């Protein structure tokens, strides 16, 4: 990291004035340097503070922007520019004293005014009154600021940078990046803004250079941690502002290359080489040339961010008195380390107790035995082991186990007492002074194992159980999860053989995925395959692909996944068993507490108690507070139990119907809160169950995006004739998810499935609405031909339904604008406006008005376009529609841009951008950045245009390849204006390939641009 600049010491003259306090005027001041020979003055007597007065709050100062001072929350008056120059000169000396002559030099340089010394005294006196007592002091013939540590923003920034340097040196790049961002965040514009004088000018230059060094370091860290796409926009702007700074060019090349933009990365080098030759007559530095060569060679190491080196797995120790460890033990390195470290503490005189919990088949015993062998050297006096059979109906009794342990420790049968308490006491006495490891496998609960725990230091107990030992005092609890995909494939390969797996790697991945990465299931599947030499891995994968048969296939000899789960299920109380069965029916990746309460038709508190008891039994996982999930194979088992045990059988359909009602009612509440006055919610199917209600928009949006996957899974699961209408309406109520890059594909898939179900059930109303939702999806993706076809079909199926009757022609008119069919656009948008007005749907009317503004804009009717957009904005504003108001401001910003009113256009688009960002709409963030780039380009501000275009690309939510092509076109124009010709050519080349692939008319315009730069 570049060094943090410190303000250099200034030479102090042998003698100088004692600032402040003297009321005499020295007649020898005159001009030039005569003021340096005055006699020092007496320091003023300190004022007495009243007794018991509270200590004043510290004064804080800023120099990384305007020079300001605060005390508490109150801004203090720092006076005139020259007075601030004196203050800044003192602040930048880190508490050291500055003489009056040094301050005069700092404020006025070589030509001070005749009354310079008097002015310095006046400024000092005024500052002393404005600041807290004791902050500005007079000493040693000068002045100093005594404000304490961390009261100056520059000092805070320097400390943050120093800590960042240490964090980076230790390998913690994320922490270093965070600290540098905090340091950069302390800047508030130009340092020492508007402060006059040569000293301030020198320090301003120094601080700006340091700021740029910090920015380079932060960008370097961005690339090291993989944030290359996000860094491109900032680097593009910085290279335009500092064209000869080669380090920035190097970082930009690397960021572009890691973002898959190799041609642009090479173009940056070409631009740089030409610029350096023209401006300085030199070649790029060797580091830049070496980077270009690595990019040309597609160096694989160059494409990867820096990653920490993996830790070495601990060595496996040969077993002794413990059960044999499996020879193909695989993975679990972090758990082995964690448990091994815990057991090792017993050697230091601490009794260690670790309890492993997890579902059946997750490998608790295998891991515990392996760890026990590895820790054997810490327990030279022996290791005890017992299977407590806690998962079965006849768990081992503690007194029986104690008898066996006492015999193993050398106690004669005649000396073993009869009662549990006496045996436990003798057991603890026998262990006293020994270093013993006790492995208590398959425990039922904490009460079963308490008598079996050693009571002395130097010993340790390792416990495995399906139940979490939350009531075992002092225990180190470990929740064991399934294997990672890499570990699972390694285990499968060890059993089956590298040759067979290597020949069918993809099929092997399918097998371990079907096993849910559960060690027992993988071992069974691999053992079956190893025993059948005529089977291929693909044959096994095909057998496991059938979910209804999967559990039956996962058995070999006396091993069976289903039997393992059956042990846990058989111990559940009736209410627990019902919850376990019914919650497994939902298709989502997890389920919230509120949704689970709807499935079970139980109060939330009772539902939480049931679910937490299932978590403690390791049949359910707590994904996060208030959220629960099944392991894939456990879910299949729960569904099998529901089919077998749920009575009456119709209760399964009722449970899923209650879940659909919950999601629909809640999504409708979110939609209504997000779009006050929008009539869509009034036309949705009624629900038999209430959903959640929200008072804050942010809370409602949090719910929608958190529940996105579960909500969409519920919609596509609800495809029977009785549910399909509500499923379609759920998608309409949650259509914000289609505008979120993270959920777009899943939303589209669910819409296709629900549409197919509506057609199968011949539900015309549901089909019309499903096609309306699909129209919206295709429009967002920029697939206009498909959107047009769906909109046409939706309108034909409307039959008086206001949803397809209004929303479909609105989108159809919007598409017609893009395809330059302006008369059709006016017709469809006019129909949409009429239908929305007939329904009293004012917000949607505003949407159609804004779209009609786009049509007028395309036809050159700029005045009416601005007026229509203003009508839309006015409706949105009156309705209090924050998010939709952003759409209106977006349309108005476009119209104002074409009208040449760039200032107003920027204001509208900037406000729209903030709203889209706040409402987590990456698609609209992207297109708004694109429009801002167009405004800046039209206003001849290419650096800002390039920055906004890069941010549009980095968001990756700009709505399909067509929109990406349009952004690349504008980015190329901005780069061309900045003189980065080769990079602009690379952008246009990529845009042309996109438009030609789509058959878009924009290809001709891009060809013309390329022809222009080629000719030049």
UniProtKB/TrEMBL annotation:
Q: Where is the OmpR/PhoB-type domain?
A: 47-147
- Positions with biased composition (Basic and acidic residues): 38-51
Keywords assigned: DNA-binding, TPR repeat, Transcription, Transcription regulation, Two-component regulatory system
UniProt xrefs under InterPro entries: AfsR-DnrI-RedD_regulator, BTAD, NB-ARC, OmpR/PhoB-type_DNA-bd, P-loop_NTPase, Sig_transdc_resp-reg_C-effctor, TPR-like_helical_dom_sf, TPR_rpt
Q: Which residues bind DNA?
A: 47-147
| Repeat region (TPR), residues | 886-919
Residues covered by region (Disordered): 1-54
Similarity field: Belongs to the AfsR/DnrI/RedD regulatory family.
Q: What is this protein called?
A: BTAD domain-containing putative transcriptional regulator
What organism is listed for this UniProt entry?
A: Streptomyces flavidovirens
Taxonomic lineage is: Bacteria, Bacillati, Actinomycetota, Actinomycetes, Kitasatosporales
